[in-house]
Design a protein that fits this description.
heterotrimer; A mainly alpha; B alpha/beta; C mainly alpha; A: mainly alpha; MetI-like fold; 71% helix; B: D-Maltodextrin-Binding Protein, domain 2; 5-stranded mixed β-sheet; 20 helices; 15% strand; membrane (chain A)
């Protein structure tokens, strides 16, 4: 039984049922939503509300402790932020860095998921275990290991490269040039994020009915064609979710950049927004400014995700 | 539809306008009970056993002198201390009675009003007069003393005796000589750094700044103003940044090094010289250069002078929210007294802050001499204002050094920008 | 997956694919191998002139230092408690919420969905102060869930994994055809029955992914652990036990690597346990 229905993940504009159903739904929905809803309301909505409040004040440790009066700044923190030229530079770099990480993890994760569906267990299991080990490694440990491997003086990579004949690489610093550094950190981020994409897409791919693929092969389609034109569109909703998640996480990267670039790179040229926020605000207990930055980052992410979802809706295959 | 949006908007504005961010209500003051548990926070070490043993002795002595009193020590990882102390400030019920903290944190901690003013207690303490004045200064903020200096950390010049012998070099007597010596080392041995220092190694840059007569900032009637853009400051910072050049320590490898990374490179045999602290000695001993190095004070701009070093160190402070004020102060004075400062030196290699103890050690342990000499020659500190922790967090000085070293900005521009950043933070 | 006549033709292609798979697995695993190796290397060899992907003098001293650190076993247990509870509750709450948001029709559904998504976008570091004050207030009412106690960590990790879990599960729930629900209704099953006995197993792969994610998130977190647990150190979690080895002037890399290795193992164990479940459930689901 091949289902031709394309899974819908957007809320239909109009409920598809009649009134009696709707009434019952409302109550059941409330029951089902209550536990999660209350938790989220208390633990997320309220703190976010507080965050927005704080962003309008001059709020540091003395204020938090109650040792200094609260000074209402209105949009002062926001103006200070947006007037800072460095903020815009960092924003641009963050966008570029995020794009590279997202595309990288999606490509690698999806590609490997497709590969995993085609091989036997003896090859698939090591891949999954390795991916899982990468995913399980704490971000800090992973960052330091990559840093050690690529260390200018003590790193294995330089050792191997100079051994292979590239003697110029003997003391090459991977973390000096701005783009080389971003590249290295992006590689680490992709390394520890692709497993999530791979596992998700693999689960989705396994759900694609065997018969559909069979039919395509029998019709003479090549593996590549089948994957691209038939399998992937069927798992598109999952891919969208994976993309949105990746965008959200990679935009907010902190640990890897902080560790691998020693706090933002030479003269702060490897800063991304979250590290910039830490450096400019949180590390100096300027919570008001940090809150403003947090709000701005959230709005940015919302716009980016919104744009992405809208572009997905426009392309074929969605209701 | 529009009315709904309007109402929602008004409600939102109302919510924001009517409310204010959560604040802690200041605690109802401390107390002075004579029994109970004294809670102490001390910094954890990777190898804690020696420190713990010394502290246990102090606790035993304290308990013997005060009946009905227990001491509970909590070991805080240095890297995570900011959040611990934040938590203690925001929730006085979680705060300890006594805590160890770094002297660079004094001003920002004092601004929270959470630390007790120990000026009176220290002046009435019999060993109080023995505290080295320069070190005591680092414990002050706004004229009041917020901690008892427990130990101090000083940096000096480490150099490779074997390399110097091989190349026929003498230990440098001035900063200019140091630069030349470093160049020679790298010229003769291109696989090594002349001296391993880093763009992020602020505490190694400061002696250069101070030796050339520059200052970080000056206090003008209560208001701080940066002096990083003065001519002397420019000379000093540039002298340091010139070490981060291809002929000594190339920017590609060195522009982003921290203090730890610099001394690690030296310990790993990658450099002819480095600037390190007394606290780095153990790590260098464990490295590949064991037995092949010596330490001398970092020279100044003239022969025979020593560059003023940065007086790092930790203090023991008492929280205002403590319910056992006298006990807390007494325990602080016990642990910070001569007897235990000496034990801490034996256990951890920490340089004592009491003059008499220092003299005793300098006489008996030659490896301490260069550091004690540096300390005696005169040390300096960072501006004692809460704004400093913000400037430090924002990496203002390292950024300036890195810009000069990589040629991103010329010294005048880089330092002017740094001074502007600092003045913004000073307010 | 069954092999068909069409497939047999591609056998050599499959072998190449398998070799590629294994090679990539090796490359992906290499940094992890390096971490474990460093944990066994003597200190002098960890950051040395000539790094080697092996050591002739393995040592257990770093592990000894980590394990004998104060309360390691206790921190380990705390981490396990927090992670397991968070996973269990995330699965339950996210499933309920995802079903409600996907299957039920009611007003304001889209708004809620969007809010859930937005909640994930806020940088977590920015929320620590408001959350600290919130948990302190909660602690005044229910101490076990307030600051300095594990309950606060459970609540916060639950709150931060839910939005993603709900979003993820939505996809899986939405992928289950409406016809199935219709059919079961015709067969006389109540909605509750359908939800738990039919829908729940069908979204199992999604549940697996969520549980792994929630586990990793709760297990590796140290931002909230260091923010909330101030005075009651007996409630600290594992990442904090390793933090102590990061001294600013003199980091103990051997111990850091050993500690990280010890931290990674339970996650791997968890996955392997869950993986088997996945395989058995998948078999049942595909038959449908």
């Amino acid at each position: 039984m091949v289902t031709k229905e394309i899974p819908r993940t957007t809320a239909p504009a109009v409920p598809a049922r009649r009134s009696p159903r709707r009434r019952r739904d409302g109550r059941a929905a409330l029951l089902y939503l209550a536990p999660g809803g209350i938790l989220l309301l208390a633990m997320l909505v309220y703190p976010i509300y507080q965050l927005v409040l704080i962003s309008f004040y001059d709020y540091g440790q003395p204020q938090a402790v109650g040792n200094a009066p609260l000074v209402f700044l209105g949009f002062g923190n926001y103006v200070e932020l947006l007037e800072n030229l460095q903020f815009w530079e960092v924003l641009a770099k963050t966008l570029g860095f995020t794009a590279v990480c997202v595309v990288g993890s999606l490509a690698l994760g999806t590609g490997l998921a497709v590969l995993a569906t085609r091989v036997r267990a003896w090859a698939r299991v090591p891949l999954f275990l390795a991916a899982l080990a990468a995913w399980a490694t704490p971000a800090m440990a992973g960052s330091y290991v990559w840093l050690f491997l690529f260390d200018a003086d003590f790193g294995l990579v330089n050792e191997v490269l100079s051994g292979l004949g590239f003697t110029g690489m003997a003391n090459h610093s991977w973390t000096f040039d701005t783009y080389s550094t971003f590249g290295l950190v992006a590689a680490e981020v992709i390394w520890c994020s692709f497993p999530f994409v791979m596992v998700t897409m693999y689960a989705g791919l396994k759900g694609v009915p065997e018969e559909v693929i069979e039919a395509a092969y029998l019709d003479g389609a090549s593996t590549w064609r089948t994957t691209w034109s038939i399998t992937l569109p069927m798992v598109r909703p999952l891919l969208t979710i994976a993309t949105i998640q990746s965008i959200i996480w990679d935009f907010k990267i902190f640990t890897q950049i902080y560790v691998m670039t020693n706090g933002g790179g030479v003269a702060g040229r490897n800063l991304v927004l979250n590290v910039f926020a830490y450096q400019q605000a949180f590390a100096g207990q300027e919570y008001g400014l940090g809150a403003a930055l947090g709000v701005v980052m959230t709005l940015l992410l919302l716009s980016i995700t919104g744009l992405y979802v809208r572009s997905q809706r426009r392309s074929a295959g969605w209701v | 539809m529009r009315t709904r949006v309007l109402i929602a908007g008004l409600a939102a504005v109302g919510l924001v306008a009517a409310c204010a961010p959560a604040q802690n209500t200041p605690a109802a003051g401390g107390g002075d009970e004579k029994t109970g548990t004294v809670r102490v926070w001390l910094f954890d070490e990777a190898n804690r056993a020696p420190k713990e043993a010394a502290v246990k002795e102090a606790i035993a002595e304290f308990k013997a002198a005060h009946s009905g009193v227990e001491v509970d020590v909590q070991w805080i990882p240095v890297e995570g201390r900011a959040d611990k102390f934040s938590g203690a400030f925001n929730d006085p019920a979680s705060a300890p009675d006594v805590a160890e903290f770094g002297n660079t944190d004094v001003s920002s901690y004092a601004a929270t009003g959470a630390l007790a003013d120990l000026t009176g207690d220290l002046s009435s303490w019999k060993e109080g007069a023995d505290i080295l004045p320069a070190v005591l200064e680092t414990a002050k903020s706004g004229g009041k003393t917020y901690g008892l200096p427990w130990f101090t950390g000083i940096r000096a010049l480490y150099y490779r005796t074997d390399l110097f012998a091989e190349l026929g070099l003498k230990p440098p007597t001035t900063l200019a000589e140091l630069t030349e010596t470093a160049k020679t080392i790298r010229a003769k041995k291109p696989e090594l750094y002349g001296i391993s220092v880093g763009g992020k190694y602020t505490y190694a840059m400061l002696p250069f700044l101070w030796a050339h007569g520059g200052e970080i900032a000056k206090q003008d009637g209560g208001k701080w103003k940066s002096t990083m853009d003065s001519e002397q400051a420019k000379a000093g910072v540039t002298a340091y940044a010139n070490l981060l050049k291809a002929d000594i320590c190339p920017p590609e490898q060195c522009a982003n090094l921290t203090g730890t990374q610099s001394i690690t490179a030296f310990a790993g045999g990658k450099a002819g010289m480095s600037i390190g602290g007394d606290f780095n000695r153990k790590a260098v001993e464990a490295g590949q250069v064991k037995g092949k190095y010596a330490i001398i004070p970092l020279p100044g701009t003239e022969a025979g002078k020593i560059a003023p070093a940065f007086a790092g160190g930790n203090l023991l402070g008492v929280f205002n929210a403590t319910k056992r004020k006298s006990l807390a102060v007494e325990f602080t004075e016990l642990l910070g007294g001569a007897k235990y400062q000496e034990k801490m030196y034996v256990a951890m290699g920490n340089l004592p802050t009491l003059g008499s103890v220092q003299q005793k050690l300098a006489a008996s342990d030659p490896s301490v001499k260069p550091f004690v000499d540096t300390l005696t020659a005169g040390t300096k500190f960072v501006p004692a204002t809460a704004a400093w922790s913000k400037i430090d967090a924002q990496n203002v000085l390292p950024t300036a050094i890195q810009q000069i070293a990589t040629g991103g900005k010329d010294p005048a521009a880089a330092l002017t920008a740094a001074a502007a950043e600092m003045n913004k933070a000073f307010g | 997956m069954g092999v068909t006549t069409g497939r047999r033709v591609r056998k050599p292609g499959r072998l190449i694919a398998e070799i590629v798979c294994v090679v990539i697995a090796g490359m992906v695993a290499f940094p992890v191998y390096w971490m474990v190796l460093s944990a066994f290397k003597p200190t002098g060899q960890i950051q040395a002139e000539n790094p080697r992907p092996w050591t002739l003098t393995p040592t257990l001293e770093h592990f000894e230092r980590v394990l004998s650190g104060e309360g390691f076993a206790m921190f380990f247990l705390n981490s396990v408690i927090v992670a397991v509870v968070v996973v269990a509750l995330s699965l339950l709450l996210s499933f309920l919420s995802a079903v409600a948001l996907t299957r039920f029709n009611f007003k304001g559904r889209t708004v809620l969905l969007v809010m859930v998504l937005v909640a994930q976008m806020v940088p977590v570091e920015a929320l620590t102060i408001p959350l600290f004050f919130l948990m302190r207030s909660v602690g005044d009412v229910a101490p076990a869930f307030g600051t300095n106690h594990l309950g606060s960590l459970i609540l916060v990790h639950l709150a931060f994994s839910l939005p993603f879990a709900i979003w993820m599960l939505r996809g899986f729930v939405a992928a289950v055809p409406q016809e199935l629900e219709e059919a079961s209704k015709i067969d006389g099953a109540s909605r509750m029955r359908f939800t738990w006995q039919i829908l729940f197993p069908l979204v199992a792969p999604g549940l697996v992914a969520i549980s792994v994610l929630a586990f990793i998130h709760a297990w590796n977190d140290f931002l909230f652990a260091k923010t909330f647990i101030i005075s009651n150190t007996e409630n600290q979690t594992l990442p904090l036990a390793i933090l102590v080895f990061f001294k600013p002037e003199d980091t103990d890399w051997g111990a850091v690597m050993a500690g990280s290795t010890l931290m990674t193992i339970p996650v791997l164990v968890f996955f392997i346990l869950v993986q088997r479940r996945l395989v058995s459930v998948m078999g049942g689901a595909v038959k449908g």
